[in-house]
Amino acid sequence: MKSMADHADPWSVPVIVAQIPDTGLHREIEADRAARDAMAVVAGLREILSASASIDLTLEKAGRVHVAGRVRARVGQTCVVSLDPIENDIDEAIDLIFAPPEQIRELAELVDETAESDTEIPDPPEPIANGVIDLGRLATDALFLGIDPYPRRPDAVFEPMIEAPDPEDHPFAALKALQPRAKPRDPKTPRNPSKKR
Question: What are the structural domain ranges in the chain?
């Protein structure tokens, strides 16, 4: 799968942090056909039939923003067993903290300190780029995380090719090949000439 960093964001829904009210902001977003087609190319999918997200943004202290919600999508893939076209549903959670860029280093150090203790390690915050949080990009990243890398139909069964056993294919076949061929015995020669009767 190609990185989103290598492409312009196909699904972009920017939110200006300064315009988020104190009571928070709820957004319902849906990717249009062009965005879905572009995302499918980036993700290596046959198609993305639908993609939507429900996201809440909540202001926190020191200019930080908590972003939480869910991304739901239906994607077209190819069964790795039968190679038939199939469709899969994706339902992924989003739960991130965004912070002004100048706070990122300090907060990342706090995460490192927590890693040395027995408490649960929080995720490091994401930077707020140019005062904007792009909900479409967040939703796209979550959607990509939910893609099954080995999709298969529920009834698809991998059946290996069964070959008839080769009588020469056994552990001692190589040794047998190294043995000198026995010379045919002359019928007139006694079996053990050294033994007297």
Answer: 4-145
